[in-house]
Fold each of these.
Amino acid sequence: MSKKLRVWLLLLIFFNGFISLSLELVVLRQLSFWVGSSPVITSIIMGAFLGFMSLGYWLGNSPRVRVSKIPNILCISFLVIATLALFAASFPFVTTYFALMYAYGITSSVAQTFIYSFVFLSVGPFLFGFNTTLLSRLLQTRNKNNTGNIMAVDTIGSVLASMTTTLLLMPILGVNYTVGLVIVLGLVCALASSRRLWVWIVSLFLLIFGLYINSDYVQFSKYGILVNNANSTISVAEFGDVRVLDMNRLAMSMYDSRQQLGADYINYINDNFIYNLPSDTPRKILVLGAGGFTAGLNDEFHEYTFVDIEPTLKDVSEKHFLKKSLTPNKKFIVQDASQFLKNTPDLYDIILLDVYSNSFQVPEGLITTEFMSRIKSRVAPNGVVLMNMIVYPSFDDAYSRVIDNTFHSVFRHNTSRQVIGNMNPWKDSDVANVIYVFINRANDGRVYTINRTPVIYDR
């Protein structure tokens, strides 16, 4: 085997590993827009990916596949992979898939993910494993000692994909152009395996169509998407004077430019906790989960710190949502909320926790007693903690009940709970914004009993 041929085969193995893991990460990101990113969803996708890939490894050793036919098989395989990447990971097609799921009454995120995995994550991963075995057979026709090289090169491709896709490609290029890059790499591998005219024609068609469907023009003109990176898919919809900021398919913030109002729960917080703060000295307000920066929107006196993991939020809000710059008393920090609380030495007069979009896209590390204990440690004496939750106000499900238990296990005293909107405990209700409140004042935990009731002194 010539050195040139050996290098060519190792490069194909490298790109096969790179494309496979990069596609898996992009799929996880695209599906999180619809079904969240819980361990259950991730395990279904990874299980399907690895299962079908293992089947490809197994069948790639079939004696029916003659070595002389392998280059042509590889060419077709990479063309199919590029096509599947186009349909499995491009936002317009993923959106169409979930629209069909809801149209046919399939609303369970687990069921949607299972079906998606077997429709879109069967052939592609199978071919990744199949390709690796075929390339290994070509390398070992002349030299049986290439097993270590093959495994190393394939693993290096996967490692680089895991690092560059999440740390560079999706944050910098965007998810849509990362999908385009995966398609391009698949086509390059197909052309490296065969340069027949029909391969060039098919590749050119897939290239043009793939880059168009994943272009910023289509993302914005058809879906209003302003940002589509590793963390978030963000869009702003306008309805007259009212603008709605959507993140990952959910309405995260609302702003009425004529009345200078936000969503109902934000208006409640502003009116009852922020706008009536004493004005003798600036108070410190921490907002975990910046949204559209509508908390304290009209307050230019007190000191605000907004914390969020999405770096584009301030720019999107100022240009497209609020359409005005934040006032100088408001600063924005891009950081994980838990890490910020761990590292900050400051105490805050108000801490607003507003990171819970709904019950299926919950940052699971932020609903624990450990996280809430960090919040409690950062609230100043006489300060207030406000936690906005999307739950059933009538405790209709286990999630709503356990959230309530978790909050009160940390904030045992001086708490209240405000349902924003109507509540009917006598029939099945829908989810609503529920504001949990804790006021950090001394409380000795005493209770009144039939034996001891000093209520006249306490009053």
Note: The mean pLDDT is 89.
Amino acid sequence: MITAKKIGNKIKLLRENLGLSQSDLAKKMNFSRGTITYIEAGKRDLETLELIRFSKIFNIDPASFLRDEEPAKISSKKITNQQDFLFSSQKLKNLILYILEKCGGKPNVGETVLYKLLYFCDFDSYEINGSPITGMNYVKLQFGPVPRAKEYNSTVNTMINNNELKIITQKYHRMIQKRYIALKESDKSILDEKEKNIINEIILKYSDMSARGIEIFVHGDAPWIETDNKEIINYNLVFNRVPPYSHNDHDADFMQAGQSDALKDLGPISKEEHDYYSSL
């Protein structure tokens, strides 16, 4: 059973993982330091909106506070902008080829649009399925998220050397555009059905946008907004998304989890209560 003590212990461990003092966390929450002390000790109950505010500070799913699990399971990794997902060069290669098959012929789909499509594919997959498609890191730059060069360039250069991909430059609307040309088909077996569904939805929603249009659009997405310039974007920031970027109502999930937990705590109804309600 989840208790105030367990929630307080989770908050303490998450706070320490971020290297925050009780005073630091109190300022972020607009609480007194003494209030944080009471919360972490399990001596003060928290309202739903307060737990949601804590979840935003810690970049975690709000519902994780209400899951009866050991705190280490949500705080065993230091919460930083660096992600620990296993990067798959094969997934990235086939994701690029798949996107190019579907929309690479559109005149607006140059490198800028491709970068944003890759970003949305990975971050939407993490929000919906709990894991990104490629595991690649993305960096916040002025004009939106871009793949981290260490992972991206290695894969793309290998594709070029293997005659799987060609990159050309051309003039497009008085600008120089880099275009990717697929020289082979993607291996559809590398991407599972859930991933392909997400990719297809991303292509449908965003592949007709101009480079400038998709840059402006991505500037409204919480992961980009809440990351410092030139820093790696934390995948957990998808839980701070709002429409039209979010795919799940995380606050509603949190409320539902809390209601479910409360019902479990009620236990079976007594005969006295049953007779009372029957007489109403």
Note: Residues 15 and 153 are 36 Å apart (CA to CA).
Amino acid sequence: MKGAMTQISGFLAWLVACSSLSWSGELPAEAFSHLRSEEFKKRESAQAELLAWARERPEPAIEELYRQSRSADDPEVRERCLGILRDLVNDEYLKEGEGFLGIQMQQPNDIVNVPGDPKPRMAVRVTLVMPDSAAEAAGLHVNDLIAGLGDHVWHEGLAYELFREEIRQMKPNTKVTLKVLRDGKLLDIDVKLGRRPPYADTMFMDLRQVDPQALERAAKDAYFRRWLERRKSRE
């Protein structure tokens, strides 16, 4: 009997925790309670667990986490909820903006003959592949000739400008197929585009004057601040 009463008490405590958070779905209440733990590792683990949970249901989770970041009685809970919010908003940041391949291109165009195309094409020669870029991940090489982007080919005009603008008009994580001439063979190379970084326009001028990581952090911080301002304006 005593054991049964203990189980019932535990279940009721769980229901109270859920109702106090105004949450209508499944809530990892235990992880949330561990944000108050005296053990640092337990607090870190709980924050990671809540982030993984929130990423499965970002829209409703964001609302609840925002509420807790403003109203929880424990400053540790408020701060950690804000940290989870920052990660969720950063996920959105990475999905927005312009597409980015991560190459430097030679100007002017190369004029090439492509197997199966009776007309000469304008092609983009790759002169540099950025480390940790979409281009590097896809296996692009210096001196590759990009002779098409999906179904788009260029028989006239400035191919490097047309190619650059098409890439920028796409969203990050867009999958594209490049038609690449390499050693006389036409290859289809699939690429998953990255997000155009804030330092993109200066990265090839003098990298010694640019701290890419610092600029990216600043851009994410500014994006999160704007998100918070918009969210607060709705209150």
Note: The chain has eight helices and eight strands.
Amino acid sequence: MPASDYEHILVEFPAEGVGLVRLNRPRAFNALNGPLMDELMDALAAMDRDDTIGCMVITGNEKAFAAGADIGEMAQATPVEMERMDFIGRWERLRAMRKPIIAAVSGYALGGGCELALACDMIVASETAVFGQPEINLGVIPGAGGTQRLARTIGKALTMEMVLNDRRLSAAEAAQFGLVNRVASVEDYLNQAIELATSIAARAPVAVRSAKAAVNMAFETPLAAGLAYERERFYALFATADQKEGMTAFLEKRKPAWSGR
């Protein structure tokens, strides 16, 4: 779908190698409905295929990254209807992206919005960011990774409090517990996310994709299997032109010119 046809997102290319997607339902605090998530995944998939893009950024606005899923879509749904809609499947599509994705979060990141940020590879937060999983107030639980990704990031006890008792984390607390990479002012958080994305996009593309896959494998397998996967990826990169260029440039004391091959 051409970017001009999107209704619920805005697509930008703010720096070399960087693709930016803005969630654009401001009146609904960027609540995540099916059409928005479909557009988001479509835009990210296009960037993931684009050789000129090395890193992506997802953001909302200053007041809300995303204040949750659109409850009106699911309030009266049956289990069969929820399965047929496959709303949660959109988060799995995000997990399958090969290139790094940074969430630039300001204001509310609640419920599905928190899970969307968690599904990204890094998070840059503004000082007003608030993270939470308030689904318990609606008689349900997180369904797009909230119980699993949070527990793997901040530990069992705090995850239990967030999921069972609607504990919210401020940006400072999120940084303290390792949920976000950095906290910046409201005026600068998006710039810092774009700067981080630009720095990553300037590195060897095949190695970046391999590094992302290897780090993610640490959350999927026992240590021995993860180490074996890392080793295979490491050896495989010696078949790339970028490995030869990177090591030659190091020895020649010059900046490497990556080809992505």
Note: The longest strand covers residues 9-15.
